[in-house]
Amino acid sequence: MIANSAFLAAMILLVAVFLVGEQLVFLAPHKRLIFEFYRWHILATLVVVFLNVFCAVYLIGKALFLKDTGRKLTHIDKLLQSPDTVMRDLSERLSRDE
Question: Cα 41 from chain centroid?
Answer without folding.
Answer: 25
